[in-house]
């Protein structure tokens, strides 16, 4: 465990702060991640100005991997690698040991011992986190088929999606986040060079969120649809939080994944040209919230995003104040058997498509204890009845088993390879 103070619910201070910065709207098909108001750990306060933002350090080792419960950083690089033919279990072990050694140093603001190109030599740790996940195909390639989790089964096809396998899946997934884009790029380059001959880069995507301290006061960010975003993410301390996010042995969950999680990645393009043609009032009815302050349409204007949505309230016309196909109604846990995920997505904007429309949207990331009970049922319902889905296109996907944190003196993934 990290040597950090715990809150009353038994979670680390990192955990109590972290999910405030992780956010999407309510469900798996929603818009782009917007960081909820949060405070940085004391050693790297984002409000201090100057170099304070760069001094923020997130502990690398612990019960859970960093980058799950931590505050959302300003920038992220997502990438997946495929294990080389013949690398096998020994090659994978050597790679994970090398990656762990390098990440241990980089997250402390120190140069990696091997292949350091000095690009980030004068930068601090900048709240750098590196989070690792295993794709389903890795287990066969590494001779670990008997240890592949049952919940790592392929996600089902959903209506309206057009997935490009070249921009999704992969044997080894990494989420690299930091408050400085140079630090992010340097970390990915280091991992790529350490993997040479053992694993090859399959795809990568860059994303962004609001920079900590960019506003006069901490506040929830907005996504590329202009909506205040990140209101209803589950938070540590809430009943059943850990059970929704982290794995425990039992049933068909393997012992090596205890304290780990499952990550669903989706690249979701937003049809911004069509969305922006709607008047604000219509946009609000699609979402179920006001754009001005995030308050639900079931409550008076100005009541604030923290006001609970009341799905039983009627509007002036006698119909539901929150329309039947509004995103927050369709995605509400109460209507999905209590299904919930810890969402930590980022915006992306990669220029224009051949038709001139923006290639922009969401790098959706959701951590959960079991995707069969989290992402899959929620997305199935959203794809069939969510008014927001008309303005979204799912273009890439991935599902990964995220091992627990690296043990003291050990390496990421050791529980799988040596447990």
Automatic annotation (TrEMBL):
Q: Which InterPro entries match?
A: Dimeric_a/b-barrel, Dyp_perox_C, Dyp_perox_N, Dyp_peroxidase, EfeB/EfeN, TAT_signal
Q: Write down the superkingdom of origin.
A: Bacteria
Q: Where is this region: Disordered?
A: 286-312
Q: Which cofactor does it need?
A: heme b
Q: Could you tell me where this protein is found in the cell?
A: Cell envelope
Give every Dyp-type peroxidase N-terminal domain span: 65-208
Primary subcellular site in the record, as a coarse category: other
Q: Which reaction does it catalyse?
A: heme b + 2 H(+) = protoporphyrin IX + Fe(2+)
Q: Where is the Dyp-type peroxidase C-terminal domain?
A: 221-405
- Cofactor: binding comment: Binds 1 heme b (iron(II)-protoporphyrin IX) group non-covalently per subunit.
Tell me where the transmembrane regions lie.
Answer: none
Please provide the record's keywords in A-Z order: Heme, Iron, Lyase, Metal-binding, Oxidoreductase, Peroxidase, Signal
Q: Identify the Pfam families for this entry.
A: Dyp_perox_C, Dyp_perox_N
* Family designation: Belongs to the DyP-type peroxidase family.
Protein name, as recorded: Deferrochelatase
| Organism per entry | Kitasatospora cathayae
């Amino acid at each position: 465990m990290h040597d950090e103070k715990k809150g009353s619910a038994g979670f680390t201070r990192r955990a109590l702060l972290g999910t405030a910065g992780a956010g999407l709207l309510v469900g798996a098909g929603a818009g782009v991640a917007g960081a909820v108001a949060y405070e940085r750990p004391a050693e790297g306060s984002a409000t201090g100005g100057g170099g304070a933002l760069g001094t923020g350090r997130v502990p690398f080792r612990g019960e859970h991997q960093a980058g799950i419960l931590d505050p959302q950083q300003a920038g992220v690089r997502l990438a997946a690698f495929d294990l080389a033919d013949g690398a096998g279990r020994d090659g994978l072990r050597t790679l994970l040991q090398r990656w762990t050694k390098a990440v241990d140093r980089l997250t402390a603001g120190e140069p990696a011992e091997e292949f350091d190109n000095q690009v980030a030599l004068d930068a601090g740790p900048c709240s750098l986190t590196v989070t690792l996940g295993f794709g389903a195909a890795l287990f066969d390639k590494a001779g670990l088929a008997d240890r592949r989790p049952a919940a790592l089964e392929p996600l089902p096809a959903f209506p309206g999606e057009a997935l490009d396998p070249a921009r999704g899946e992969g044997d080894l997934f990494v989420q690299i986040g930091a408050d400085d884009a140079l630090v992010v790029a340097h970390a990915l380059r280091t991992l790529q060079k350490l993997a040479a001959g053992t694993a090859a880069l399959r795809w990568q995507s860059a994303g962004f969120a609001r920079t900590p301290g960019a506003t006069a006061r901490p506040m929830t960010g907005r996504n590329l649809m202009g909506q205040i975003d990140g209101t209803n993410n589950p938070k540590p301390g809430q009943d059943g939080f850990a059970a929704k996010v982290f794995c425990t042995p039992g049933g068909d969950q393997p012992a090596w994944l205890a304290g780990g999680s499952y990550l669903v990645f989706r690249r979701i393009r937003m049809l911004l040209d069509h969305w922006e043609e709607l008047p604000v009032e219509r946009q609000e009815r699609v979402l179920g919230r006001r754009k001005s302050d995030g308050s639900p349409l079931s409550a008076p204007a100005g009541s604030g995003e923290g006001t609970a949505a009341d799905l039983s309230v009627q509007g002036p016309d006698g119909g539901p104040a929150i329309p039947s196909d509004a995103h927050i109604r369709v995605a509400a846990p109460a209507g999905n058997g209590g299904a919930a995920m810890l969402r930590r997505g980022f915006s992306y904007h990669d220029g224009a498509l051949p038709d001139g429309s923006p290639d922009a949207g969401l790098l959706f990331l959701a951590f959960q204890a079991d995707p069969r009970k989290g992402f899959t049922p929620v997305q199935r319902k959203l794809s069939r009845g969510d008014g927001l889905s008309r303005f979204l296109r799912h273009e890439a996907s991935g599902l990964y088993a995220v091992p627990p944190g690296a043990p003291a003196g050990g390496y990421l993934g050791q529980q799988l390879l040596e447990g």
